[in-house]
Design a protein that fits this description.
The chain is an all-alpha fold and about 350 residues long. Helix content is about 70%, strand content about 0%. It is globular. The model has no long low-confidence stretch (mean pLDDT about 80).
Length: about 350
């Protein structure tokens, strides 16, 4: 089996080194981003014209994506039901935000980056690395380009937003301040429940043919159970790190065959697209502050297209309601997946998987 090939051991070793280095220096989502960087660095160093690594099974990502989806869903509580009516306007505003963010970034990727239509389409999605990569893989886009662009954009957003508030507030925020959405108050029952929800959600998502079913199935199942008060799961910090490390390293392994020219072009396009999305988020926050019970900072963080967990941690550090921020990012991710999947099948005439 390709997944047991001994040549993959250095990839996962370098991914782990990258994750720990990123963790030690305070990089947001360290084991995800560090895992991508470490694994990709090894692949780019190892491969030559006559040396190629075998393809890593996609199930490595799917299983751990399902665990991450379940973890995100468990972070919501029944409080969500009382907050939703107050933020319906900003929730609806996510629709034009997603369309403008995607359209503008697509124009950057196509017009300035010169990417193929399919690659530019998925590289420009204002979603997360995991869901966007999963959609791109299903559609047959170049996963190296898509992953690189989202990697750069996520780094820009989750690094620049805390630095911006550090400059304004004078103190560190987010994971750099030691904040976490996990808890040390957990036991074996919590771990068992989380894995069970992830596996059941993965199966249910595939049976119902949800887009990115391996992530959305567990996420929606965990969300329903948590908001309904059926279960309350404490997530161990190490499990979140381990899942992000596995997904990040597996994505880094996809950089097989990436040229230096592609990396340089990706860096430029990622910075342009990320800056555009941040400017768009600030514009929406300025407009919406008049209509919802939240100030500019909370709304800006709610619309900044970074990671759900990291944006929630920044909100927690600044004494904003993390549930408000998290639900905006959850809705953004769900809408991005739905719109991205719906439009791609019509624009590119993609055939759904059987």
């Amino acid at each position: 089996m390709a997944t047991l090939d001994s040549r993959y051991l250095p990839i996962f070793a370098f991914g782990l080194i990258g994750g720990f280095c990123a963790y030690l220096i305070g990089v947001p989502m360290p084991f995800m981003l560090g895992g991508i960087f470490g694994a990709a660095s090894f692949v780019l160093w190892y491969e030559r014209d006559d040396k190629r690594l075998p393809k890593l099974s996609r199930w490595v990502r799917l299983v751990f994506m399902s665990i991450i989806g379940a973890m995100i869903g468990t972070r919501f509580s029944p409080e969500l039901l009382t907050l939703l009516p107050q933020f319906w306007i900003s929730g609806l505003a996510l629709i034009p935000f997603i369309l403008l963010a995607h359209g503008g970034s697509y124009a950057i990727m196509r017009g300035l980056g010169g990417y193929d239509k399919l690659d530019a389409y998925f590289a420009a999605l204002p979603g997360g690395i995991i869901d966007s990569a999963a959609l791109a893989e299903e559609a047959g886009a170049d996963l190296r380009i898509v992953t690189a662009q989202h990697f750069i954009r996520i780094i820009l957003v989750v690094a620049s937003v805390p630095l911006l508030f550090l400059f304004i507030e004078g103190e560190a925020v987010g994971s750099a301040a030691g904040q976490t959405m996990a808890t040390v108050d957990y036991d074996i029952v919590d771990i068992t429940l989380l894995v069970a929800v992830a596996m059941v959600g993965l199966l249910a998502g595939q049976l119902t043919r949800l887009p990115v079913s391996h992530m959305l199935g567990p996420l929606l199942l965990a969300l329903a159970l948590s908001v309904g008060g059926v279960v309350e799961i404490d997530v161990p910090p190490w499990l979140g790190h381990a899942a992000q490390y596995m997904v990040g390293t597996a994505l880094g392994a996809q950089f097989s065959g990436v040229s230096r020219r592609l990396l340089i072009r990706g860096l430029g396009m990622g910075l342009l697209a990320g800056s555009y999305m941040l400017g768009l988020a600030a514009t929406f926050a300025i407009i919406l502050v008049q209509y919802v019970p939240a100030d500019f900072g909370a709304l800006f963080i709610s619309f900044a297209a970074g990671g759900l967990a990291e944006m929630s941690l920044i909100a927690l550090s600044l004494n904003f309601n993390p549930v408000v921020v998290a639900i905006h990012h959850l809705v953004r991710i769900l809408m991005t997946v739905w719109f991205g999947n719906f439009l791609s099948r019509r624009v590119f005439k993609l055939v759904p998987e059987k």
